[in-house]
Design a protein that fits this description.
Layout (H helix, E strand, L loop, with lengths): L7 H11 L2 H20 L4 H10 L8 H11 L14 H11 L6 H8 L10 H12 L6 H10 L5 H19 L6 H15 L1
Helix pairs in contact: 2-3, 2-7, 3-6, 4-5, 5-6, 6-7, 7-9, 8-9, 9-10
Length: 196
């Protein structure tokens, strides 16, 4: 099935042109990891690969362009604007839909929520969220390995998601940065889910 209106080669050319070399490598790594996780969890591998490729397509847009697109075309809660590092997620979903013709709502949602996440993620959304954090091309092993290890356990997806939030919250506290209330809500949700 075709999930975009252009070929994968054209999509890769666009990403190569519009991302830094490291961000392009990260996008390839995320796509490969997402495809592997889709296979493991019996989800659509091609769909996961496309979502992985596109998840950061707006990452290298300047902040003023991200804000402009959000203000003109998207509904983003003020609380999400606390951290400029997450603004690319809703814009990347917008670009996937409007530049590449992605119509699949699960791909668009997975891209939209790959940074902050949300309380009730589908398994597909979870694998894109995780692939972004643990791909092997650019992610540091010290960070990714504890998350990868949890995927081998029963209920591994939820345990891995919880570990991501543990590490994120610890990092934000260590750097004296604000924590979005949504992050706390998601952490508490998965803490409850895993501890049952």
């Amino acid at each position: 099935m075709n999930y975009t209106e252009i070929s994968t080669e054209s999509l890769l050319d666009w990403l190569r042109t519009n991302l830094t070399e490291k961000r392009y490598a990260h996008s390839l790594g995320t796509a490969e990891c997402a495809k592997d996780l889709a296979r493991k969890y019996r989800l659509d591998e091609e769909k996961a690969y496309i979502a992985g490729l596109l998840h950061d397509c707006a990452k290298c847009f300047p902040n003023d362009k991200l804000i402009s697109i959000i203000d003109e075309h998207l509904e983003v809660e003020e609380i999400e604007k606390m951290n400029y590092k997450t603004l690319h997620a809703p814009v990347s979903a917008y670009v996937a839909k409007n530049t590449f013709g992605v119509k699949d709502e699960e791909i668009l949602s997975a891209i939209r929520w790959h940074t902050l996440g949300k309380v009730h993620m589908t398994d597909f959304e979870k694998i894109i969220f995780l692939a972004d954090k643990i791909e092997e091309r650019t992610r540091e092993n010290w960070y990714a390995q504890p998350i990868r290890a949890l995927l081998l356990e029963s209920d591994g997806l939820n345990k891995a998601i919880l570990q991501c939030y543990r590490q994120t919250i610890k990092s934000l506290v260590d750097r004296d940065l604000k924590i979005c209330p949504l992050t706390i809500d998601i952490y508490n949700h998965y803490e409850d889910k895993v501890s049952k």
